[in-house]
Amino acid sequence: MKSRPGFDAPRKCFWLPVLTAIVVGCSRSTEGIISLRNEGSDTMVNLAQAWAEEYHRYRPTVKVQVLGGGTGVGIASLIDGNCDLANASRRMKPDELAAAEKNRGQSPKEYVVGYDALAVFVHPKNPLDRISLEELAEIYGEEGTITKWSELGVPQGTLGTDKIIRINRQSSSGTYAYFRETVLGKGKDLKLGSVDANGSKDAVNLVALTPAAIGYSGMGYVTENVKPLRVSKRRGGPAFLPSAENARSGDYPITRPLLIYTLGTPQGAAKEYLEWILSPAGQKVIYHLGYVPVAEYE
Asked: How many Å from the N-terminal Cα to the C-terminal Cα in the chain?
């Protein structure tokens, strides 16, 4: 595999599916141990933990602290100089880029490390198997008029209540921002009255426990306790499940890049860590956790 611009040739490594976070200090070396801090997207936190654990096996002298909290939290931490790498499930906004330049004197550098299909899911008891972006806008948008499952063809009495219970994400979430913009379009907002989950796992668990609920998260968080829907761009159009194949082909209409930001071009341990993430070994971790690699993997 050819090396990427700015990086040395990737080294091979083998991944084991351990998801325990390594908690250490931030961006410093203590007794020969180099510490990096990686913070941000809840969608990416399991992925980031798996990377950190496997990289520590590959390079024992480097430990990576992984923290979630949402894309906005990670970007704010990067701007404040509190982390080395910020995980993001949306691109940085112009005001965030300007703040980084003003506060730190460096422009953030973006790395696309994978792709994610944003899954829309319901309870397994729900007979619905497909939905369009137009219908999602009618359910979630502040101007939307769909409030009952029967309006989507679900027989009354099937789910205990006909009322659609909307599971949403907190506003600091990159998943929230991407869903809002993709489904509703720029300048529009989600309606009030939803049940807001603190993270992707919480969103999945809430739908699993609530037959009349609908929610969304990165496809890597979908479990057998919820049912992902086929999604189409328009009512009656071709609908596709959130899968790696459909995300890679562009058929699935809610596909987004997974990003890591650094302040300026990374150096030293941070550079080597990103190099490894983009290598076949790091990309294999993405594949095994259900996301879409951007490059070849072992």
From this structure: 10
- CB 118 within 8 Å of CB 256: yes
DSSP string, 132-160: EHHHHHHHHBTT----BGGGGTPPTTSSS
Domains and CATH numbers, the chain: 29-116+259-288 (3.40.190.10), 117-255 (3.40.190.10)
Q: How far apart, in whole angstroms, are the C-alpha atoms of residue 291 and residue 115?
A: 6
Q: How far apart are CA 64 and CA 35, in angstroms?
A: 6
Pick the closest to residue 254 from 89, 112, 118 (CA basis): 118
pTM attached to this predicted model: 0.74
- pLDDT, tens digit (0-9, with 9 covering 90-100), for 175-211: 999 999 999 998 899 999 999 999 899 999 999 999 9
